[in-house]
Description:
367 residues; globular; Spore Coat Polysaccharide Biosynthesis Protein SpsA, Chain A; alpha/beta; four-stranded mixed β-sheet
Amino acid sequence: METTPKRMRAVIFAGGVGTRMWPMSRKQSPKQFEPIIEGKSTLQLAVERLRPEFDWNDIYISSGEVYRDLIKKQLPNIPENNIVGEPVMRDVAPAVGMLMTLLSLNDPDTPTAILWSDHLVRDVDMFKKALFTGAKVLEENPNRYIFIGQKPRFANQNLGWIEYGKDLDTIDGLPVRQFVSWHYRPDQETANKYFASENHAWNPGYFVLTPKFALSQFEQHAPNLYQQLMEMKAHLGKDDQQQVINQIYPTMEKISFDDAVVTKTEPDKAVVISVELGWADIGTWEALKEAILPDPEKNLEQGLVKTYDSKNNILYSQTDQMIAAVGVKDMVVVVTNDVVMVAPQDHIPNIKKLLATFEGKPEERYT
């Protein structure tokens, strides 16, 4: 692998409940903490991808405060202070803002990767190479985003897409391209056009930037959030730090980082590195199938599973109870200690609607 930058940090965001992978994913233990790939959680895999090039002291985990003990148990080498807990869930923009504010106290110009805990990356070497290349680009001009794109495998309408332009440079063999625009969840016809073109990439949400630049973008595009972050910053490192965070954070606007800041990026404030990462967002059952076993003739099975004349199913058991599937196609069957969930794969988005009907009722304990 090419030489690494002088120093680089990474923040892995591990919030969210993951309702689309219910009933495995619950409020008490969301999907990113469950051992769904070779006995490891996707959070553990996300950290594993960074090692050993990233020092333990340079890896940060952002999640709900309620998951702190769970994170410490799964990642005992992460320093206690590098686990940053949100007092309440306020979506990603406040979480990113708080992390960037914390990191700006020490080396605000250090390149920092923003990453996610529920992804699968097969080409780990290329993943790290892209991150390190992004850090080297920032050495020349730190006032911009480095967007890491995944070369599209098909016309996916459920993802964001990045449009890029001409090559601006080549670093360590990777082309650094002009950023043009974002496109979030296009219709199928538009997705087909993007896939057929040679200047679009899937957006996995991976960025390399400096905390100083990130905060400048909050100041420009989300001034109310920025003002609250600066109120927090005045108390960081002091005795009342947590008290002030607990007071301010719950009042912050509940908005995604993309909507608050990133989608407002001017073309000259970003460049794109589009590579083949073998990346997949496994936030849903069908996405897990596509990532691990895309062959439509085969079943994705875990636990005690027996099948006959069945194909393209997701059959997942966390108990000693057998799943026996006969003549079944395109289904999801998940068995936990207290729930059996059965649904056609194309109805997975409706899981969230089902769980909404549990709110305020005895069934809410199953969420």
